[in-house]
Amino acid sequence: MTENPPSARLTRVNVLLLGGTAEGRRLATLLVAEAGVRVVTSLAGRVSDPILPDGEVRIGGFGGPAGLADWLRANRIHALVDATHPFAVGITGSAAAASRSSGVALLRLQRPGWVAGSGDWWIRVPSLAQAAAALADLGERVFLTTGRQGLATFAPLDRHWFVVRSVNPPDPPVPCRMLALLDRGPFTVDGELDLMRKHAIQVVVTKDSGGNMAAAKLAAARVLGLPVVLVDRPPQPNVPTVTSVDEVVDWVRGLAQVR
Ligand code: NAP
Predict the structure, then answer these.
(1) Radius of gyration (Cα) for the chain, nearest Å?
(2) 38 pairs with which residues across the strands?
(3) Per-residue b or e along 205-224, where b marks 16 or more CB atoms closer than 10 Å to that residue's CB
(4) How many angstroms separate the alpha carbon of residue 206 from the centre of ligand 1?
(5) Which of 4, 13, 135, 145 has its CA 20 to 30 A from that of 216?
(6) What is the pTM (predicted TM-score) of this model?
(7) Does the Cβ of 81 fall within 6 Å of ligand 1?
(8) Quick one: CA torsion of 36, 40, 41, 42, rounded to 10 degrees?
(9) Atom of ligand 1 nearest to the CA of 67
């Protein structure tokens, strides 16, 4: 009997992992350790010095759903995992469309949204524009952690003063009264309490990202009795979705067994 070369024996399931999240990195570490799985993580390239996941990485957009479908075919991908951020609607829509057109199996990994607990004072809004509108009645000193991309929405608010935290420096247009803090999570409750007290913050604005990396500000706001304006998640395409990295690993193992 002719033996396959070792590489052919081991590379049975090729996975493209759309990342840019902490759970995407955790998943890459787990999949790299799986026998018979080859995983390539894709990053958008938004952050100048991204935390790189284990294993192979490619960086940059695909050129929409058709470009992604071409990439899947050209790289003989068997499984597509969308582990992107809950607010990354463009790439998530592309993944759904590319999976349909290419026939490559898709699984979305999405962390659960945050749930208010006792003592939380949350104002849920459907959009950044509604968040900006809600600030009129809630205080002038704002801790804004919605990411640097949506800052233009808050730029017209010249009565408010903002502490804006982002990984890379924000690009204009930005609010005229603003302190930019460059930092990335995970953050601690004590650290968030210090920051909010130091800047006499009156209201927090954030997106319902979910997960632990960014939840400390919600706990700190609860301790200080501050309102939190929470932007709801955008609608998602109807695709198979799980909430834990272990479920994705099981899914990939299942694909490896049928191949
Ligand atoms: P987006 O609006 O969905 O992405 C816009 C375009 O960027 C996509 O159409 C795609 O370009 C490209 N892109 C996005 N993610 C990509 C990936 N993982 N690999 C290759 N290309 C990608 O996304 P976004 O909100 O700008 O977020 C960009 C990245 O940052 C995502 O990977 C996301 O996981 C991460 N992130 C986002 C947020 C957030 O609040 N939105 C927070 C933390 C991390 P083409 O159409 O050319 O393929």
Answers:
(1) 21
(2) 14
(3) bbbbbbbeebbbbbbbbbee
(4) 18
(5) 135
(6) 0.94
(7) no
(8) -150
(9) 48
Which residues have CB under 8 Å from 249's CB, separation 6+? 27, 30, 31, 34
How many Cα atoms are found within 13 Å in the side-chain-facing hemisphere of 2?
3
Instruction: Specify the CATH class of 122-231 in words.
Output: alpha beta
pLDDT at 9 over 50: no
Cα of 143 vs centre of ligand 1, distance in Å, is 24
Atom 13 (ligand 1) nearest CA? 44
Start-end of CATH 3.40.50.720 domains in the chain = 6-112+235-258
Distance CA 102, CA 38 (A): 19
pLDDT tens digit string along 226-243? Answer: 999 999 999 999 999 999
Neighbours of 191 (CB within 10 A): 14
The pLDDT value given to residue 252: 96
CB atoms under 10 Å from CB of 9, counted, come to: 11
Q: How far is residue 104's CA from residue 142's CA, in Å, rounded to a whole number?
A: 44
For domain 6-112+235-258, the CATH superfamily is: NAD(P)-binding Rossmann-like Domain (3.40.50.720)
Tokens of residue 241, six digits: 């979705």
